[in-house]
Amino acid sequence: MAYSHRDRWQLIVLATLDWPTAQVAKVWRALKNGELTWRSLRFPSLALQQKFDLTKFQLNSIKKFFSEYTFDSFENWVLEQQFRVVTLLDRDYPARLKDLAQPPPVLWSTGVWPSWSQTAAVIGSRHPSAYGIQVSQVVVQQLVALGCTIVSGCMFGADITAQQQALASQGQAVGVLGYGLLKRYPVTLKNNIADFLSHGGGLISPFAPWAEPRPWRFLARNQIVAALADAVIVTEALPKSGTHSTVAMAAELGRVAAVLPSPLTSPFAPGVTVLLEQGALLLHSAEQLLSEVPAWKKLQITASVGKTPAETSQLLAVLQQVPKTLTELSNLVALTPSQLLMELTQLELQGKVKREGAVFRCL
Hints:
This protein has 363 residues and is of the alpha/beta class. The chain contains 15 helices and 12 strands. Helix 1 runs antiparallel to helix 2, helix 7 crosses helix 8 and helix 10 crosses helix 11.
């Protein structure tokens, strides 16, 4: 079906009014087929209010919008802000979102609009451990090597870690907001988000640019994160956390859900158990996903994912002799401390090395 420029902007305007998605769709269809006009919406009869279930809030939101904008002035304002607005009517609307029972009618975006060919959501605790940060960096590097765009919820902790690592690995990353593009939450993330955008990241939001952060909006954000991804990977999570709602939505949508192992002494270990009981895959390497995600089975690895370079072989040989601390290992292998820590973390994920206090030993 062909849609006009006005059809598209009518949908955009309706989506800014903070109405339920089903209500937006119902009123938009009535406007398109001529059953309704904007004038009749601004000054509705009682019969019209009853027919379209218009609440006082919805009527007030229309009046407020048109007290500040006309269609033309609103479109000009959006252009001035340099936002990208993608609607359900557009070809570049992410197809995965249509798996939702009520996909967001409009997405607001700033920064880079990524490739959606392969996607993985990497999520976890807002207060990750040092181990959680390390394993997140390792698995994101692997996912980028597989050509994945990294999706996250753009909050402090695991989300920001995954986003930053994706860009550092020359990959693409997009953060999904639980508020509008003109807001920042918490305020302390303002500089992190600015840095993320300046280095090639992208933000999307299903909410009007001025929308404030609200608990229900973050739940809606979690649904979008799950829907956008082919696989949802949890780095760390407590037994009760918002991460579980994203994993539950992933399962409902038929996405692959996976969790990285945590040390038995970690407070996150029980969260891993809960996710495994719910059907999540225990993930030791991103390569495992090649056989789990149907669309990924023909992917070509573009970097040395899963390969054992000479330095890693040397590291394993040293550890087979006697357990050693990080400092001792750094004096014996040709790796910088940061490279060494990344290698050890990857070997730990693969079950080849175990950390015991300050020392590492070969299994």
